[in-house]
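ping. complex inputs:
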Amino acid sequence: MARKLLPDIVSLTPSSYESFVRCHRLFLLGHLLGVPASDPIPTPDRGQLVHELLRFVHERGNCRDNAHVEEVLSAHGVADDVHRTMFRRHAERCPEVVDAGAHEKDIARFHRFPAPMFMANARIDAIWVHDGILDARDYKTGQRWHDRVADDPAAQVQAFVLAPHAQRRGLRLRIRYEYLAPEIDDDPDPFEPDDDDLEAIAARLHGAVHSMFSQESWRGCGEAQICRTCRYRSICADSAATGEPEWAALGLRQ
Ligand code: SF4
Ligand SMILES: [Zn+2]
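pong. complex structure:
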């Protein structure tokens, strides 16, 4: 069954790999079958807007220029305390002097041998080159899940795609999460993978794709802590959490 569902070259993104690590059925439903969410999940709208505004602020000026930031927030109708706080928190974390920078960069890396083949892709929110470091930033507007960026499977895909670029330029790779929401106290420890870490990550990703091809039933994890925030919790036979389906919230209950 797995072979019929999986393409010859599996696509791995930070999100799809994170899903597979959390729960194989979640990966099946969301990333292979494209099943629409049956249950409400926290809206990503604020996150997408903040990402866009941060790119805009950096492309047209400096994030430490309060007048510039205020102008951008006002122009987009979000000159409120929450957004001001998020931009202030970002400016405290943003490197002051950089040699180069880029936003919303799509980076891919192909794995050919040994089989199975896969293509890893990641969209990186911001990349700064400074002080001999390729400093990749991931802007976060939701809750914090990990104490160390290294523990997040999503960061391992980011490290896998970024590593050749850092090595080619003779730079040290660092992945840092910026938690911008006022309710989060600290960022998790940044991840600076060494050669051994990168080798282990490559083996882990390859092992995950290998495991996808051997799936028969795509059993769900059935762990209440994971299921309670899952977007399929009311339609999944393995769910360990009760759900409130989207259609019920819309008043479509029969
Ligand atoms: S409800 Fe639980 S078992 Fe089912 S897909 Fe979601 S995380 Fe997996
Ligand atoms: Zn900045």
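Residues 58, 63, 90-91, 94 surround zinc ion (ligand 2) (CB under 6 Å).
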